């Protein structure tokens, strides 16, 4: 998003791919709640919340140089920490299962639903060992990586006499394009 690009470019704030995935999901969930189209899985939500809390906590300490705990009532902070511990427990168990199954770390990505690096790439799908979400993998037409369908945007649809097909671009390629576009606008404004 533009806000994340600005944090990176102007404030030198590092935001990990896992944090970006969680922020995107929180945005999608917020939109679902606002538009009364709630399809939330409690395990997904708690795990994503725990990752988001970790990000916000770290952001407060490193960027704002303030403690998040000091900004919240004690009861709310205690409840938030309990959810974070629950998410961490699920994640640790998932890592153990991935290790026990001998899955190569190159086949494990950030889950597009809960944000944990516990989503295992299978042949044509991926499945998260934390929140148990699964979805098909789609090839990005720009970088040719296989990515979860929810992390892509349809870019073109083709129709012939007997078939229809879609091509997709992954979010990472879309964001690179947005950042390049923003940089071009800045350069134009500066007369470069």
How would you portray this structure in words?
The chain is of the alpha+beta class. 49% of the residues lie in helices and 19% in strands. The protein has five helices and seven strands; from the N terminus they run ααααβββββββα. The strands form two sheets. The chain has a five-stranded antiparallel sheet with strand order 1-2-3-4-5. A two-stranded antiparallel ribbon has the order 6-7. A hairpin with a 3-residue loop joins β2 and β3 (125-128). α2 crosses α3 (42-62) and α3 crosses α4. The radius of gyration is 19 Å and the shape is globular. The model has no long low-confidence stretch (mean pLDDT 83).
Summary, kept brief:
The chain is α+β, with helices and mostly antiparallel strands and 192 residues long. Helices cover 49% and strands 19% of the residues.
């Amino acid at each position: 998003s533009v806000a994340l690009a600005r944090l990176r470019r102007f404030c030198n704030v590092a935001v990990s791919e896992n944090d970006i995935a969680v922020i995107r999901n929180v945005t999608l969930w917020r939109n679902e709640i606002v538009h009364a189209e709630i399809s939330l899985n409690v395990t997904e939500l708690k795990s994503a919340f725990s990752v988001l809390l970790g990000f916000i906590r770290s952001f407060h300490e490193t960027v704002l140089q303030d403690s998040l705990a000091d900004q919240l009532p004690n009861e709310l902070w205690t409840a938030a920490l309990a959810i974070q511990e629950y998410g961490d427990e699920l994640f640790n168990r998932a890592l153990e299962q991935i290790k026990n199954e001998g899955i190569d770390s190159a086949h494990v990505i950030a889950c597009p639903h809960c944000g944990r690096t516990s989503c295992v790439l299978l042949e044509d799908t991926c499945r998260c060992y934390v929140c148990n979400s699964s979805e098909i993998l789609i090839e990005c037409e720009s970088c040719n990586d296989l990515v979860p369908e929810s992390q892509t945007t349809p870019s073109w649809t083709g129709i012939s006499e007997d078939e229809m097909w879609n091509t997709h671009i992954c979010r990472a390629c879309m964001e690179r394009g947005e950042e390049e576009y923003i940089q071009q606008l800045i350069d134009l404004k500066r007369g470069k």
